[in-house]
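=== Structural record ===
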Amino acid sequence: MTERAAQFSITLAQLNPTVGDVEGNAAKARAARAQARADGADLVVLPELFITGYPPEDLVLKPAFQSACRAAIEELARDTADGGPAMLIGSPWVEDGKLYNACALLDEGRIAAIRFKANLPNYGVFDEKRLFARGQRIMKTSSNVSRRPARKFSWCRTARPMRATRTICGCRSRWRASPKAGCR
C-alpha cells in the first residue's frame, strides 16, 4: 500500500450558503466538491442545513421547500457517481411524516446514509425543537468511500476526531493539518 492510499483526506467546506437559495447552495456544494476532487480529497464536509442556508426558520415547514431540498440532495447524490469524493451535507429531511434536521452521506451515485440530529437546541436564536423531530442518539453506518474501495468510512457518535487536510471557506484562507485515523 502506498503512503497516499493509507491516508483519508477530508475537505471542510466552510462556505456561506444563502437562506432559501436551494439551487445556489447546491451549486456551491458542487464547486466545493470539484475543488476537493482537484485536491485529492476522499470526503467533502459541508455545514448543518447547508442546502437551505442557516437559519432557515419557518421556511423548512413549507412542503414545496422540503421537496426542493430533497430533490437537490438526490441530484447531488447522483453527481457522486463520477468517482470523486463522497459528500456529507446538511438538509431538512421528511421521513415517515416527520421533519428532521439531517446530514446525508452522498457516495457512489446514491444517498449512502442519512442521519437525523438528536440534540435540538431551543434557546436564544435556536428554535429547532419546534421545527424538527428528534433523531435517534446512537447510530452507526459504513459506506465505501469513492476512490478507496478497500477503505470504509464509518460515521458513529463515539468517533475519535478526524483532522482536516483542507478547509475551503468563503475568504479562501486554508488550514492544513496532518490526517489522523477517525472512527473505525
Q: What stands out?
A: The chain has one domain: 4-169. The radius of gyration is 16 Å.
